Amino acid sequence: MYVIVVGAGDIGTPLIEIATRSGNEVVVVESSPEKAEFVAAEYDCLVINDDATVKETLSEAGAHRADAVISTTDEDATNVMICLLGQELEISSIVSVVHNPEHRALFERIGANTIENPSSLIAEYLYRAVKRPSIVDFMRVGEEAEVFEIRVAESAPVAGRRLDDAGDELLPEDVLVVAIEREGESNPITPRGATEVQPGDLLTVYSARGATPEVTDLFGHYEDRAKAFAGGGVRSRLSPQSPPNASMVSSGRSPRANNVTRSSARISVSPRGVSISSSRSTETTSTSGST
Questions:
Q1: Cα dihedral 99, 49, 86, 269 in deg (nearest 10)
Q2: Nearest to residue 1, comparing CAs of 46, 87, 68?
Q3: Compositional bias (Polar residues) at which positions (predicted)?
């Protein structure tokens, strides 16, 4: 497969490593000379140190024969332009990272497959690992549904039960056991109605409501319920007057003012094309402390 990767940052570099290791023909477009030089020295790929939002650059990268272009830059505005150029150059598969969730629909509208910001995905994964310790792994499906892995505890209500019996008496209609990994079995078990769930089994489960405590209870993991009822600890550390979206500001021992410059880009698509506007504002926040 011939792949053009735009961006050799925290997301692009591991992607380049995987793609080259898998035997694909990879061309990297990176605007930073330092990053371009690093990738050229480390990986078996062609590197172009240029601006990928220029059509000629993608043409030079071999867009006419590329199977895919993957945009991994830090800016959604840049990624949008690359996706539009990829569409114009008739690259069959166009994939992009989306940093701002509000822009996802826009990317999909112009025909790009999108991947949510990996940093957000990792943050959510870590949070859920703490909140739901029984869940080995999970994947979101839509807004609420999840496919997750969970191990059956000795005391689980489903332990020692046939799946058809458990389905009739315990499992909600929107919960389905789709695979079972069992010690001593070389391959996962495809569950049937007569399949018995055993303590220690690692189940792959689909739940339309996600891995709620009501669901994880069935597999003997009551600690998830305890975690769910223990929420709110972080909020209690804010002042009683703090609104839900309050920011925590570190203050020194003497009064001082912090100038914070914020910049943002707004992207919109109309029948006439893409519009990208940016704004920058400066705000001053005062902090004080006492000894």
A1: 50
A2: 68
A3: 238-266
Count of residues for the chain? 291
Tokens, residue 281:
């504002």
| Residue 197 near residue 180 (C-beta atoms within 8 A) | yes
Residue 50: the pLDDT is: 97
DSSP secondary structure letter of residue 188: -
Q: How far apart are CA 8 and CA 25, in angstroms?
A: 16
Amino acid residing at 184:
G
pLDDT score for 95: 95
Tokens of 166: 């458990």
CA-to-CA distance for 224 and 218, rounded, in angstroms?
11
Give the SS3 label for residue 72.
coil
User: What SS3 state is found at 116?
Assistant: strand
* Domains contained in the chain, CATH given: 2-116 (3.40.50.720), 121-231 (3.30.70.1450), 256-287 (no CATH)
In the numeric block, the tokens 């223990």 are attached to 230
Q: Confirm if 13 and 39 have CB atoms less than 8 A apart.
A: yes
pLDDT in the model for residue 224: 60
270 contact partners, CB below 8 Å, separation of at least 6 = none
CA distance 189 to 152: 15
Cα separation of the two ends of the chain: 64
> Which residue blocks in the chain are alpha helix, DSSP H?
12-21, 33-42, 55-60, 76-88, 104-109, 118-131, 163-169, 213-216, 223-229, 233-236
Q: Which residues of the chain have pLDDT under 50?
A: 229, 231-264, 269-272, 278-291
Residue 62 carries which side chain, given as an amino acid letter? G
The one-character DSSP state at 70 is E
The tokens for 80 are 């949008």
